[in-house]
Task: structure prediction
Amino acid sequence: MNKIKKIFIITGEHSGDIHASFIVKELRKINHDVEIEAIGGKSLEQEGVKLFCDHSKMAVVGLDAIKSLFSHIMLGKRLVEYLKNEYKPDLVLLIDYGGFNLRIAKELKKYGIEIFYYISPQVWASRKGRVDIIKKYISKIMLILPFEENIYKEKGVNAEYVGHPLISQLPFNFDKEDFIKKNNLDPDKKIVGIFPGSRKMEINNLLPIFLKAAYKINAHSRKVQFCVAQAPNLEDELLNKHIAIFAIKNNLEIKTLKNQNHALLANSDVAIAASGTITLEAALYNTPIIISYKAPYIAYIVYLMIRYIKFAALPNIIANKEIIKEFIQHKAKPDLIANETLALLHNKTKREAMIEELKQIREQLGDKTASKEVAQIINDYLTKENSIK
Result:
């Protein structure tokens, strides 16, 4: 009879919980003799994983993060005590959430606990010193961007590119005709999807700019309609206070679509978005996109001081050239955003050139299913006399 192996997974936010649940699902297909506990959320719980605690209070930013620092420290201490004295896992899998996870890795390594990491901190964007920390405390790191592998391997880190989770997790079966009917859109007008982000700060800083850009686009082209994507965590009130007043004042129809982010992105003729993972999603959907971001100036100055790359959009970073136009901070102006959007809507050559570039990004990502790759790597470690390959 095989000895039951124990794994403990640490996630810090909703996305990590989802990625972890896919790994658990794949791992259980190939290994029934595994016990799994975690810090996670509903997705892991639905897979039958026992939670040490829910991570809902961990994903905080700004002043909330400062306030929660004490609880983070106490959680870390409780976790280390539990893992070394009670649970005694054969492997700990860290997922994203670099600040907390790397501190935990340092503590766990003291007790000889084996640690793997999935979804690396973005060391190529800032804080390159973390590569040395990862080399010291992490036995294996599994990467979701192809260019990351060389960065780590050059430093002697045991790293492997496993594919991007979006490739297998992103829904693709969208019918444009159904989408238009469902949302009472005009089939004869082009769709501009507006994605202002999922945080209050992003909404307050970017949505007014995006709405003014929509007004300018509408003044030049009446064959366009606008839909704002409402992230699941955003309250109606927050969006409505911007959209309703603006729409009435400017006699402009703007629809808000809730819980339809992927359908809207897949069916948009052009997307205007806050910088983030959405740029890679747009590449996978072959949707022309422009991005913008505006933060308080002190945060922007800090970003300029610590960054190592000149691009914000992931397709630009992967290609090491500008495929997607970026309107960051002082460039986040309605006129600039409107002009670029109009060009992508009506300039066929420009539009097709971007779509071709986005297709190449998809090819660079390859066809690996990340959750399967990670599950296999973990299972190989657990079953091959704990030897790392």
